[in-house]
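Renewal narrative, Specific Aim 1. Our central claim is that a sequence can be written position by position from structural information alone. The example that follows is taken directly from our test logs and has not been curated for this report. It begins with the structure tokens describing the chain, in the order in which they were read.
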């Protein structure tokens, strides 16, 4: 199917992609868009002018992509996510558009240093951690592989907070990333949808006896579209990420203006615009705040309205929906989409229940990212009834029909009905959003093999029994474009010299490296690359913390959100033990331990952990007896742009969560791809990484998931683990006695007490195995040939963890979507 607009669209005159043409565009942009004479321009002005020059070239391809999709009857994939952790955009866009070298040269000819210019850009940090970064990787891969895939999310005015230590404890500062405007976004004033909250449902009885419902009154807020073009690497496809910003409706303002209350009108305006004001800084925990529910509904309602409008504008009917549209729900956050699509199909388009439900189920699929109960959203029925009354009605009806079906299959099994119900009746009545997502989707996936198995056996066991065919696994992946080509240019060049560049599109081709992993010359080059990357990281560490680190020792890295289950404390206990051994005169192999990560602002335990790590680090780093044999650094404000410097420099990758708690992990993949060896538990994707790289090339330790379950069942006091372990006991005593603090004994004492008496994630139980694994790592590091062979083998065998494989898995197992590469233009460009 094609629209008439395609044939009448004027051809675009292609912009030049060579150095001279780019230089001209940058200079022009400086005058026309930035409004400055190049002589007066600051580095930020050059950043903006360069961004405008790139975006011109991207939007040209965006329009071509769109025209082709419109003309070709393609199935579109829509990715609904509350989070996109994108990072800096200029370098990524230059690289994917294929004009990075030319732009670097153009800037040089204009007297500007490319590296200094790109560093002025703020990270687009519209996400917390793994889930948000995965969403960004998926969008990049959709474009790179030519899939018609589009992201929808929220244009938060304040992204992830900036973290500072004052002096040891985390303090949050707002991330006002849009304060200087944003050259990458296209505001679409014409794409505005009114979004309703509160109000009431009115019943209309028709002559034929049928009942029709409408949702009326309440408050309306406008969702306005802001488009961010997303370029594919080595292809002309440019897709779109549409983020919604909240705007007050004009009617709403007028009410107060007419009453003469100017101040109230303006205040109310900013009140309604607060919906898209700030990202909730909680990773894998639900907070149950009304504003959060409103954020979720706001972006879901706008996105579905937009999707249906596009569908009908293209001339399709509602019956065509399952053939033309796939909608992926990224975690439970957008699960209200199931009820909203039902509402639109019935109340707006007049479909009857059964047909609407059939279409819904064919369109939606749901990705679960966690088993942790505190991360699974539930909303009090009262709140839902007040904020979204029509949706609450629809959810009741979905639940009714669903439970009727269960009753027929399992007569008399009341317990099963309670477990499956969309409404949790215990401790107040709450809507289980994960259940809504499962019931409303044709496919449900976990994000690593173990995680999917656990979903089937535990969290969704009853659903799995009903519909085993709906559950599939899609193991996460990472984009090699950001995490190798951009983050590690030296390693990229080194690989290019040895095995060519095909791996950039097909990461499995890294296997071609395997015959050479033990080659001394290659190893020497690899070591040189690592060393250079360590120097780059040492500079970042010095700039951010003032600490000087040497670059000829093992770099031991744990970078991720701070969470009890991720067990930063396990690493800390090891650091303290190393410190004691050095002070006892033992000859301990030197190392630099690097931490990075943010804690949710209200998560006191995580903030305590940060504080204590910083205090321990301060003591160690200033102890003359230790010197540079051990350094411990907590890099403040860990973010995507910092990750691109830290990851290529790592030797050892800490993936030490309590087995059964990390759904997948993706940092584990980025680090191994860059030649770090993993010390890890059999959790999440670590298991698949071990299977890929081989047992000899990874340091696995600790309780397995079923051993954790059995250990918990035994109910031993954690303190019992200290018996017969003098070194560990000494470490715990030092913490609880405040050895590392001058003024906050209470926090240290509390943390010591927590380890002895609570230790919910079994840090003490796993410690002996962990220390032993670290010693295995030290022993291997002492034999550089063996270490380098293992590191290079890791790189060679990481192909499976490309996000391109992940996206193909989704396309084949879930979306039934095919790539639609944009044909090269006849006149090049
Ligand atoms: O999602 C990552 C996983 C990781 C998991 C993470 C995640 C969030 O970042 C936020 C919410 C949530 O439910 C899960 O913790 O294991 O790798 C991407 O799948």
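The sequence written for that structure reads:
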């Amino acid at each position: 199917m094609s629209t008439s607009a395609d044939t009448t669209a004027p051809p675009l005159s292609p912009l030049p992609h060579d150095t001279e043409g780019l230089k001209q565009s940058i200079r022009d942009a400086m005058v026309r868009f930035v409004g400055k004479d190049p002589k007066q321009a600051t580095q930020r002005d050059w950043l903006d002018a360069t961004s405008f020059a790139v975006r011109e070239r991207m939007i040209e391809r965006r329009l071509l992509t769109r025209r082709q999709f419109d003309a070709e009857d393609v199935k579109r994939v829509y990715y609904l996510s509350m989070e996109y952790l994108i990072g800096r955009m200029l370098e990524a866009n230059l690289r994917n558009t294929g004009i990075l070298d030319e732009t670097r040269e153009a800037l040089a000819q204009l007297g500007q240093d490319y590296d200094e210019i790109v560093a002025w850009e703020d990270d687009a940090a519209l996400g917390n951690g793994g889930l948000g970064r995965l969403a960004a990787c998926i969008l990049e891969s959709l474009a790179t592989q030519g899939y018609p895939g589009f992201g929808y999310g929220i244009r938060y005015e304040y992204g992830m907070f900036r973290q500072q230590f004052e002096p040891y404890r985390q303090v949050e500062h707002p991330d006002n990333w849009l304060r200087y405007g944003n050259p990458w976004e296209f505001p679409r004033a014409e794409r505005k949808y009114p979004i309703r909250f509160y109000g009431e449902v009115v019943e209309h009885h028709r002559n034929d006896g049928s009942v029709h419902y409408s949702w009326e009154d309440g408050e309306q807020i406008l969702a306005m579209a802001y488009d961010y073009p997303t370029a594919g690497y080595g292809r002309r496809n440019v897709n779109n990420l549409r983020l919604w910003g909240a705007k007050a409706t004009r009617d709403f303002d007028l009410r107060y203006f007419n009453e003469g209350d100017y101040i109230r009108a303006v205040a109310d305006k900013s009140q309604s615009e607060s919906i898209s004001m700030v990202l909730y800084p909680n990773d894998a925990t639900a907070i149950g705040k009304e504003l959060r529910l409103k954020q979720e509904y706001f972006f879901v309602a706008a996105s579905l309205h937009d999707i249906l409008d596009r569908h009908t504008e293209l001339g399709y009917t509602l019956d065509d929906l399952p053939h033309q549209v796939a909608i992926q729900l990224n975690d439970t956050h957008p699960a209200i989409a199931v009820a909203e699509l039902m509402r639109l199909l019935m109340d707006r388009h007049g479909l009857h229940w059964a047909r609407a439900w059939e279409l819904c189920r064919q369109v939606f699929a749901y990705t679960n990212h966690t088993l942790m109960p505190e991360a699974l959203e539930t909303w009090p029925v009262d709140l839902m009834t007040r904020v979204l009354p029509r949706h609450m009605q629809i959810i009741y009806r979905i639940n009714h029909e669903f439970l009727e079906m269960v009753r027929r299959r399992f007569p008399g099994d009341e317990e099963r009905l309670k477990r499956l119900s969309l409404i949790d009746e215990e401790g107040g009545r709450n809507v289980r959003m994960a259940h809504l997502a499962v019931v409303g989707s044709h496919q449900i996936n976990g994000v690593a093999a173990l995680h999917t198995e656990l979903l089937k056996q535990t969290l969704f066991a009853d659903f799995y029994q009903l519909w085993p065919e709906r559950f599939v696994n899609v193991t996460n992946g990472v984009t090699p474009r950001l995490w190798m080509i951009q983050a590690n240019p030296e390693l990229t060049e080194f690989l290019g010299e040895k095995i060519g560049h095909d791996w950039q599109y097909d990461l499995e081709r890294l296997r071609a490296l395997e015959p050479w992993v033990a080659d001394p010359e290659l190893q020497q080059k690899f070591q040189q690359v690592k060393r250079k990357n360590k120097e780059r990281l040492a500079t970042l560490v010095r700039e951010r913390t003032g600490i000087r680190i040497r670059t000829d020792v093992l770099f031991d890295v744990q970078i991720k959100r701070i969470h009890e289950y991720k067990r930063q404390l396990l690493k800390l206990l090891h650091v303290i033990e190393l410190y004691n051994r050095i002070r006892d005169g033992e000859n301990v192999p030197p190392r630099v331990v690097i931490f990075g990560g943010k804690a949710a602002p209200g998560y006191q335990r995580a903030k305590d952990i940060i504080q204590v790590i910083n205090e321990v680090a301060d003591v160690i780093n200033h102890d003359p007896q230790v010197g540079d044999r051990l350094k411990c650094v907590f890099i403040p404000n860990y973010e995507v742009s910092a990750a691109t410097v830290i990851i290529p420099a790592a030797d050892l990758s800490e993936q030490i969560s309590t087995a059964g708690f990390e759904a997948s992990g993706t940092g584990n993949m980025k680090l191994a791809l860059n030649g770090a060896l993993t010390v890890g538990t059999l959790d999440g994707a670590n298991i698949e990484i071990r299977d890929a790289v081989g047992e000899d090339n990874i340091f696995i330790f600790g309780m397995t998931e079923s051993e954790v379950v059995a250990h918990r069942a035994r109910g031993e006091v954690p303190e019992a683990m200290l018996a017969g372990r003098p070194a560990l006991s000494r470490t715990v005593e030092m913490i609880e006695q405040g050895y590392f603090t001058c003024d906050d004994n209470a926090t240290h004492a509390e943390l010591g007490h927590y380890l002895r008496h609570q230790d919910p994630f079994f840090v003490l139980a796993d410690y002996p195995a962990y220390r032993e694994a670290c010693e295995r790592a030290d022993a291997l590091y002492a034999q550089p040939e063996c270490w380098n062979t293992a590191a290079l083998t890791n790189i060679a065998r990481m192909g499976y963890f490309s996000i391109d494989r992940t996206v193909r898995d989704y396309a084949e197992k879930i979306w039934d979507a095919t790539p639609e590469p944009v044909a090269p233009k006849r006149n090049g460009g």
